[in-house]
Amino acid sequence: MDHSSMKMEGMDHSSKDMKDMDQDKMKGHESHSNVVSLNNSTGVNEVNIPAELKRNNKDEVVYTVRAQKGKTEIFDGVQTNTYGYNGSFLGPMIRLEKGETVKIRTINELDEDTTFHWHGLEVSGEKDGGPQSILKPGEENTFEFKVNQEAATLWFHPHPHGKAAEQVYNGLAGLVYIEDDHSKSLGLPNDYGKNDFPLIFQDRIFDDKKQLNYSAAMNTDGTIGDTLLINGTLNPKLTVNKEKVRLRLLNGSNARNYTFKLNTGDSFLQIATDGGFLNEPVSLKEITLTPSERAEIVVDFSKIKEVNDLALINEDRSVLLPFVVTDQSGETSMVPKKLNDLSLEDKEMDLPVTKKVELFGMMDMVTINGKKFDPERIDFTQKQGVTEVWEIYNKPDMMGGMIHPFHIHGAQFKVLSRDEKKPPENEQGWKDSISVKPDETVKIAVQFKHKGIYMFHCHILEHEDNGMMGQIKVE
Ligand SMILES: [Cu+2]
Asked: What are the chain's domains?
């Protein structure tokens, strides 16, 4: 096709006015440069594994998802007011198979507006559950779609404008697993809750009555807590056998970034990014996930020598998840050398940049291309099925700036470059969210399979609620 006819959309950010500032004087935002540590997990509670949601009907695949209020015993003997899907806190895991047609019935049983957003799912705009798809209290909506993307770990959460952060904080988040023939043939650990575990990391602040008081905890620059919940479990531990174990990590926090590593310094294999398998497993000693990013990793507990006091820890060595390793040797699952065949060096590399996104600001003064979200404004247009290169630039501010995790609805994209350099190996897979550091430029190749209006935004949920969001119309 003729690329010269494609017009540039977005901001011309050729003048990097902050470039000349003394780097030493650039300090990050206080709450993000000096992040409060998480309390160490004491490991007294086995981590809760979300139930797999049952299909309602044998002949057609129908799932029902209800957003509800409830009370949850997070602390022994204390009832905490929480939100959940089909339960009082968080949600179930919904398993989808590539190629099948699925109906999902969504019901709002809250006493406030909400939406059901399918993060990472490639569906048309009106099924995506963005802020334009409000369900009022008592309302429901059923939508049907064909699963048309490869195996991946996705998730769902609310997206009402200005209220997304609070509703997620209160507990609305669930998992979507997509499986396909290829994923089932690989021999990877896939026994749910036995050697294949989802781990949703969320930090919270509890008040002295052990309640989630969002308005008291809220930070306009991103709410950060001192208490870690994994799958809603306080002080979690995970019991595993001496075998290869697949951990599907989801950063479900409002704003906190995590750098996961084993306290022994042992390495692990990353096998999947947000939207599918990497071409080959990547051996890592640590991995950073910003809000909404996922990674599937495989830890071989049969190869780790020091299993006493073994734990998954954060960058600052706070203990996130102690492991209890049994003497039992496990299944003979494997990690094949070849997992996918995504090409990154092909024609996309030569496409011109046709969308420019400039992320800027802090607190409630956050913008994209100098503008705040306006539901009446379409910021970009793109043709269905046509790949365009988006350039995302994180413009520093007087304080230096902070990482913004940039997310596009309705599409999985490829990362072409970070500051004109090849992305790290573990980002050379399908992504729907990408961290962008201050003064960094990230180029991505984006193609939408479906039509409709989609959001793109910062996934620090308070930034999103404060208007760091735009809309693209795919025609
Ligand atoms: Cu942001």
From this structure: 3-28+342-474 (2.60.40.420), 48-183 (2.60.40.420), 196-329 (2.60.40.420)
